[in-house]
Amino acid sequence: MIDKKGLKSMLIFFSIIILLLIFSNQLNFLPYNIRSVILILFILIFVFYESTRPIKDLKDINRVYQRKSLFSKKKALETLKEGLKLENLNYNERLLLHIKIAVEYYNMKDYANAYKSFKKVVEEILKNDNLKIEEKFLIKLIGTYILNDKKEEAKKIYYRLLSLGRCEKSKLVEDMIKS
Fold it and tell me: pTM for this one?
């Protein structure tokens, strides 16, 4: 899936650079430093444009989240939470954001907040009939419950998800809830 907005922005950016390179001969009357400043100025304008572009849908949330996650996990998490406030997201997109928030808390080793987020996700998954959980996510979910001393609750959730066919049987998860 191609992000058309991002592609359009990149095409505009590269067009400006190509135009500057083509017309650099006409700018020979300017010192080299000023030509460099002009090029840097156009790059900064583009970066500013990209950073202030409004968040309208899930693609925009993912774009901003990926950019912010390179520098700060907390800011990336804030972006995901802001994304939940968008009114035009459908049920699956909201659930995806809740999952990303839970996993982000888990990766930050903030297991108390991860537990709360995973709890919301489990409630939503149990409501929806056609969702299946991957083993990687299930391991994080059950692990978070265990780390928050909710082992019995983790067992109940795992066996309920199994009985409803929402996840595959996992030896690793079963070992986690047995020990």
Answer: 0.70
